[in-house]
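# nightly structure sweep
# worker-07 picked up a monomer target from the shared queue
# config: single-sequence mode, recycle default, output format = structure tokens
# input follows
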Amino acid sequence: MDFLSDARHAQATRFFLEELYGEHDFRERDRQFGRIAGAIERLFPEAVALLAVDLAETHALTETLDYRLATHWLGQDPTIPAAVRYTKSWRLTGQHEQRERQLVVVLHMATELQRLTRMNSLRLALKLMRRPAQAAGLSDLQQFLERGFDSFSTMGDASRFLSAIQHRERYWIDTLFDANAATASAALQAELARA
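# output follows
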């Protein structure tokens, strides 16, 4: 959680933790996207539309993988240490290719957010889209896009942030899939102790 305590990266970190992986109910935002998936190009600038597509894919992957993992988690003896249960749940869930794809899409979305924040006209375009988005019943999606834009624009150069996401997530994907189960559980327990 080192990025949460760093003023430069805190807002973008919170955006990822809350807007992509948070415990919030994203069904309305997902419904909004699903309703307009075919027409999104007309309502938002192309770069923003592609970002919304990444968001939808990220949510679909995350929801599917988390549901499967939670199902395996709940099927285990609750007296087993959490890190051991999580490692076993991860491996029972499998879906290595989907985990890889999830990381690729998240990194692409973050890279695009970083690139888009350099376009001053885009922030204005997003602001001008508030009323049309509200009229079209897309305010949750609109707010998400604005929060993402704002959180990344305050960070400036995101290369350190993006590199950390890539390396940390890669480490956990490799460890949870490929390392000895005891080694993976011990690494996860050590990480949980630091949090």
